[in-house]
Amino acid sequence: MRVPAGVLVLAWFAGLAVRGAEFDIWKFDRLENIGGYRTKVEGHPRMIDTPAGKAVEFDGVDDALFIEDHPLAGAATFTWEVIFRPSKGGNPEQRFFHLNERDPKTGGDTANRFLFEIRVRGEEWFLDTFVMSPTGSKALFNSDHLHPLDRWYHAAQVYDGHLYRNYVNGVLENSAELNFTPNLEGHASVGVRINHRDHYKGAVRESRFTRRALSPKEFLELP
């Protein structure tokens, strides 16, 4: 069911998930509730002000948010975007946004998942994205595309039913063929992998989950 335009606007300003026919939006402008879902807070992530609004900052040691939703469950094609700022002083490997399927019978995590990761080299970083489904998985490891830390970026991973791609600031960095089938329902973590490994040092401001492949001109804007 498509959400009426007026409801979309109200949900946006209320900080709620926009669960329409096509997309969800999560704004990280509070700690206790992300995307309309109550969060479990670990460590001491903190709210910060940015020129484009509030964001959540993680210390890279023990800060994390756990959210009871998998916004791309059931999606056969997708675009997952995030606006974030990786900071200096973090670990070389950081899994900063994780969506994981749960087994509907046991409630335990399966191997099927989506991941946004970064790798840090000195004062630069590069993007690493990963998806796994019952029919196939793919990692896109962008070690030839380094970016300075302590700046805001837009990252996206996109699947059109054939090719899996990732982008930084709207620029294609990597792609590969993928045979992918949808994940079942599950949950998410921000600031760390769901199994509490590889904490992230930096901030996250916004994420959008779309159930189709977007072109770069349709991506969220990076102010």
Question: What would a concise description of this structure say?
Answer:
A hairpin with a 2-residue loop joins strand 9 and strand 10 (124-133). The chain is mostly beta strands. Strands 2, 3, 6, 8, 9, 10, 11, 12 and 16 form a nine-stranded antiparallel β-sheet that branches.
Commentary on this structure:
4% of the residues lie in helices and 51% in strands. By secondary structure, the protein is mainly beta. The chain has a single domain, classed as Jelly Rolls (Sandwich). Strands 2, 3, 6, 8, 9, 10, 11, 12 and 16 form a nine-stranded antiparallel sheet that branches. Strands 1, 4, 5, 7, 13, 14, 15 and 17 form an eight-stranded antiparallel sheet that branches. A hairpin with a 3-residue loop joins strand 13 and strand 14 (163-168). Residues 1-19 have low confidence and may be disordered.
Radius of gyration: 16 Å
- From the spread of the alpha carbons, the general shape counts as globular
Task: State the helical fraction.
Answer: under 10%
| Helix run count | 1
Cα distance spanning the termini: 31 Å
> Hey, roughly how much beta strand do the residues contain?
over 45%
Which runs of at least 5 residues are low in confidence (pLDDT < 50)?
1-19
Kindly identify the CATH topology. Answer: Jelly Rolls
By DSSP, the count of extended strands is: 17
SSE sequence, one letter per element? HEEEEEEEEEEEEEEEEE
